[in-house]
Each structure stands twice: as structure tokens, then as C-alpha cells.
Amino acid sequence: MGAEANASFNFLIYGRTGWIGGLLGKLCEAQGISYTYGSGRLQDRQSIVDDIETVKPSHVFNAAGVTGRPNVDWCESHKVETIRTNVAGTLTLADICREKGLVLINYATGCIFEYDSGHPLGSGVGFKEEDTPNFTGSFYSKTKAMVEELLKNYENVCTLRVRMPISSDLSNPRNFITKIARYEKVVDIPNSMTILDELLPISIEMAKRNLTGIYNFTNPGVVSHNEILEMYREYIDPSFTWKNFTLEEQAKVIVAPRSNNELDATKLKTEFPEMLSIKESLIKFVFEPNKKTGVKA
Length: 297
Hints:
Elements: H1 3-6, E1 10-14, H2 19-31, E2 34-37, H3 45-55, E3 59-62, H4 73-77, H5 79-99, E4 103-109, H6 139-151, E5 157-162, H7 176-182, E6 185-186, H8 196-208, E7 213-216, H9 225-235, E8 243-244, H10 247-251, H11 266-271, H12 278-291
Parallel strand pairs: 1-2, 1-3, 3-4, 4-5, 5-7, 6-8
Helix pairs in contact: 2-8, 5-6, 9-12
């Protein structure tokens, strides 16, 4: 789409201080799309209504929510705060958008599944959009699964299941690569992941196409922790070393279990055939751009 066509769009974005919310604003600037960050609190209905009346958006994006700091273990001890934003807030926003006839692009999570007998580790059989979440190990994931189920009733919502997000900014502590590069020990399990540099522009395109429903918002295929760290060593830091430990050993140092799964990205790939597989995307969007300069993680 040319700049002229982009002028007809006007996005209202929630999550200004978040990683995805911040990147969305930069993408809108680069594409010449008018955008405003919402100032209302998601759980305060009137403040959202006021935002929409002021901004008069063509589409609304929700990149707000609590994931916990430094990680999702925070949600285990802050359950009411987690519900307030992730459940009450998200539903309020979806409800108002429906009332106003607006499509809501909602960045959700794919950490609501875990490998099981029907989707065994290494089988290449991924969970599909219509599958029922089977991972309730963490309170964060439990609330996200509840919200996804309720949002199915809102025909104006596009739910994007993000997993283990990665970007080319290797100095960002929320970047999955940066996280595991700093851990003392890592597990080594293949997972579906989301390369933001490639997929966030796709989410803007999804809004332009008024797509709704659930999408597994991950690059096709899986990649393991060790495969990523091997690429890190090859492209970024030849002296980099790491240690592995088992899930049982990991369980002793975390409060809540973590989700490991493969999501089937066929639906997204059908809509966007140019989308790269996870390993190709990692090389093209993350490791190659960082190779020339070298970065300090």
C-alpha cells in the first residue's frame, strides 16, 4: 500500500510503555500511518470511551497487559492485579470496540498449550487455532486462556497468539534471546516463537484487511534454545558458552511451570505466504543485521 492509502488509517494503540506497543508506534511512523497511544486504563470503561471519541480511530490495537517483572512468576503472587488488566481490561476494551464497530487487534499469548500425546515433542504436529488450551501451569497462562475463550464471542476481535517474542534489538531484556543468553542455565526444548521484526508489520497489514478470529502468531516451525544460542555464538560472540539443565532442575528455581509447544502457523502462512520459517527469520531479521556491528548484550 502506498502512503496515500495509509493516510486513511488512524490507529489507537494501548501499551505505550510496553515492548510491542513501542515498536508499533515506530512502524506506524515509518509507514506514514496516523496513530495515538491510548491514555485510558483498560479496566476504566469511561476512559476508553473517551479515548475513542477523541481519537476516532479506524482500528484499535491492544498491546497492554501484565506479563510480570522480571517474569510471569510475579503473576502468581499478584492475582487480582493480573485479572484486572489481562481479563477485565481486555474484555472491556473488546466490548467497547464492538459497540463502536471497530476491529480490535489483540496481542495475546500462545503460552496456553503444552506438548501432549496428540502433539508430541518433535512430531511436527502443532496446536491449531481451534484447539482448546491445555496448559494451566501458571496463573498468567490460565487467565490468558480464559480471556481467549471469552473473546471468541466477539466477532470484531483478532487474537494474535504471540510466543517467546524475539527482535533484532539484542539489548532489550525482554527479548527471548537476550533472556536466555543471560541465564545461568537453560533448558533445551524446541518451541514456536515470534520474530517481531517480521510479524509486527504483518499485524498492521491484518488490521488493514480487517481480519478477525484467532491466529497462531508465530513463524512456521520450531527452534530450540540450544539452536538459538549456537547461532548467537556463530554471529555475535564466538566465545559465548552456556549450560543446560533439565525441566526437573528448572522447576526448582521457578515458581510456576513454563509452557513448551509447537503452534501450527498454516492459517497465518496462507494469508501471508511470504512469511519465513523460524530459523530463516532468525537469521534474516535478527542475526544477520547484528553481525556487522556486534552488540553488547
